[in-house]
Amino acid sequence: MGKKRVAQKGGGEETLKETAKAVKPSRVVEQGRVYIFSSYNNTIMSLTDERGNTLAQASAGGIGFKGTKKSTPFAASRVAETLYNAAKARGMKKIELLVKGVGTGRDSALRAFGAKDLEIISIRDLTPVPHNGPRPRKVRRV
User: Fold this and answer.
1) Known Gene3D superfamilies for this protein (predicted)?
2) pTM of the shown model
3) Where along the chain do its domains lie?
4) In terms of CATH architecture, what is 21-125?
5) How does 17-37 read in b/e, with b if 16+ C-beta sit within 10 Å?
6) What pLDDT, in 10s, does the model give residues 96-123?
7) Sheet hosting strand 54-59, strand order edge to edge
């Protein structure tokens, strides 16, 4: 006999966690950096100060999206909102955006930060580009 599973009674509502993991909640920082890593499966963002010390981080999977919903532009914009709230809680006024990866969430994350009242100093693309490295994977056919 296998394990018996008991169905849990619940509201059926899917709620998203709106908190970014904070490392040191007491420090006030005027200017910081937001690192956006967007892969085909997830979007991960980190908020750091100018020296590179992590202040907060959030990901689409971390705030409650599961499976293929993690890679959507909507999930990336929600992650950006979460990190924006963490930045405002620290008194941040200016940010630099550093983008890495080729996922679908990268553009919507940039737009989400652009719509907020933080001053964007610069946007840099850190996506690694091979100078004729190893042979690429075969093209996916659906």
Assistant:
1) Ribosomal protein S11
2) 0.79
3) 21-125
4) 2-Layer Sandwich (3.30)
5) eeebeeeeeeeebeebbbbbb
6) 999 999 989 999 999 999 999 999 999 9
7) 21-22, 54-59, 43-49, 31-38, 94-100, 119-125
